Amino acid sequence: MRSTCYRSAAMVLAACLTMVSACGDESVLPMKPAPAAGSPSFRFDWLNPYPSGNSLIDLTSLDSGEIVAGGTGGAVLFHTPEESWRVDQVSAHTITKLTALPGGHLVAADDRDFLYLYDGADWRELGAPPGITNQWSLINDIHGTSDTNIWVCGDRGIARFDGSGWIEIDDSQASRVWSFSPDVTYAIRQSRVYRITQDSVTWALDDTLFQAKALFGTGDETLIVAGSDGFAQTRASYYTYDGDDWALGDSLDRRFPLAVDGTGEHDFWIAFSNGYHHWNGQRWSHPPDNPYRVKESSMVIHNDGALWVLGSQFGMFHLDSDGWLPGFGGFGASLSLPFEWRGELYCFTSQRDTLFHLIGNQAEFLNLDDEFAAWSFANDVLSLTTDEIFLAGHLGIASSLGSGWDVYKPPSDLSLYAIDGSSRESVWAVGRTGLVLHFNGREWINRSGSTRVTLNSVLVSDDNVVWIGGAGGHISQLENDQWILNETPTNSAIFDLHETRSGTIYALGLDGTVLLYSGKTWHRQFFPNSDQLRQMAETSDGRLFIRGSDGIYVLGESGWQSIFLPDRASSFNDIYPLDDGQFLLVGDAGRVLLATPE
Which of these, 190, 235, 470, 511, has the minimum number of CB atoms within 10 Å of its CB? Predict the structure, then answer.
């Protein structure tokens, strides 16, 4: 489907290896499986610009100064003050909640509502709190003062872990919980603040117009509750409680507070869906909004005073005297279509108007102009040179042939699925209902007419012959300005047409379809299963790879063989060949994997 028109692969490889060396030994997770008999052996190294491709759900901060985040795949990520990191595999399920305890202890909950306790060295499973959740509700909040006093609340109640087991405290819905000791705990139930003791659960805040949303406490047992005030609930406000009296604070020019955190009643933050407010003990300030799309309800104040927030797609960020800075974490958006542009390697992402840019061990997110925003739905990319890029997508074609992007929308308003070319004067794109477009260096010309089936692939061969492939085993070639329909031994959809360095032309498709062109006819090559075959790639040492829905395959002496992958095959969306026989795999949750032949 996509030809890799040569780019400076050495430059791209150098950038990837820079990522490995810049991250240090801990950031590369080499995996050396025992290969099947006779199959080629590869070493796999994770090259994620952040230490994990896991989407992140929650974060907290330990007394040691470590920032901790949890997310998909049961991963808990620790980021130290020395800027190193590690990943603990805590569960086989998504980590949904994290809470720090004194002494460097940590509690994590997964999406089964199982809890895990970290003592600074090892993890211990605590099981599920009794009765407070079900298949339609999850744990809403966790707090504790030690490993013998851990409180959990959910849609069906509140429970406490006393070091040996769980005690069900209450069966009412609760959204937040904060414990000062086993004897005194506060919770938000149905927007009201309640005080929980060993003997009773009583309403604590006597204000029927105040709708509580978030709370946190300090070491001197001061409680701060953020919520909405008044009949209309149009303005946010807060209460402080010193153990004896409640004091109503200022009204703020925001609505619906989501979270509150800080170091005390004279230094705390309130997060809203559209920004933050900070109280320094004397006045409120409104720092600049985070320029990244973030999940503001997940925030923590680090012990150096910096505000850290969790970006639901883009890892974590922190606000200090220099403004908003990227932190660390997962990259939730899916990566695909790697290409080199202006000397650097980019991936298209599933996140709207965003490119993923690999520089050293960091990532940049380039917000493209409004006209180009629709190309978050790009289906294929052609790199003629590092400055000449063509993108085919659902709304047309975008090309970078100069200082900016030009957009062409075909009159038929049909999606384009593949693009290929040998030069600026010979670029071809294909799509739905037989759409075929040709760019001659000046304009796009409609060359449809040979078929009405959906076309998934186009190949401009070294002989400048144009091939198109699509549904029902359709393959045609352009000869003497006419489309010639080829007879093929399959009715399965063709997804990729590829020409090797030696001039052999392959076609890939559904049901394990691998076709070779002999110069006159197409012959089916044996493939060991009925996988959906999506892409062929060739590395600099001449090895051929196929990316399928169920695996990555390499052509060896005994035919096509599946190779080991350290993650499920369906999580990878593209293969990008490099120098020295290496290749990159990119995919879901920001995964970037470097394969090196051994």
Answer: 190
At 32, the pLDDT band (50, 70, 90 cuts) reads very low
Q: If you average pLDDT over residues 201-215, what whole number do you get?
A: 90
Q: Does residue 366 carry a pLDDT above 80?
A: no
User: Would you say the pTM of this structure is higher than 0.85?
Assistant: no
Q: Which residue blocks in 97-181 are alpha helix, DSSP H? A: none
Contact by Cβ (8 Å): 59, 78? no
Read off the pLDDT of residues 472-508 as tens digits, 9 standing for 90 and up.
Answer: 999 999 988 899 999 999 999 999 999 999 999 999 9
Q: What are phi and psi of 48, to 5 degrees?
A: -55, 130
* Rounded Cα distance, 598 and 529, in Å: 26
Rounded to 10 degrees, the C-alpha dihedral 306/307/309/315 comes to -20
CA 409 to chain centre: 30
Which token pair is 306? Answer: 């910096």
* Positive or negative: CA dihedral 299, 161, 85, 335: negative
Residue pair 398/381 in contact (Cβ under 8 Å)? The answer is no
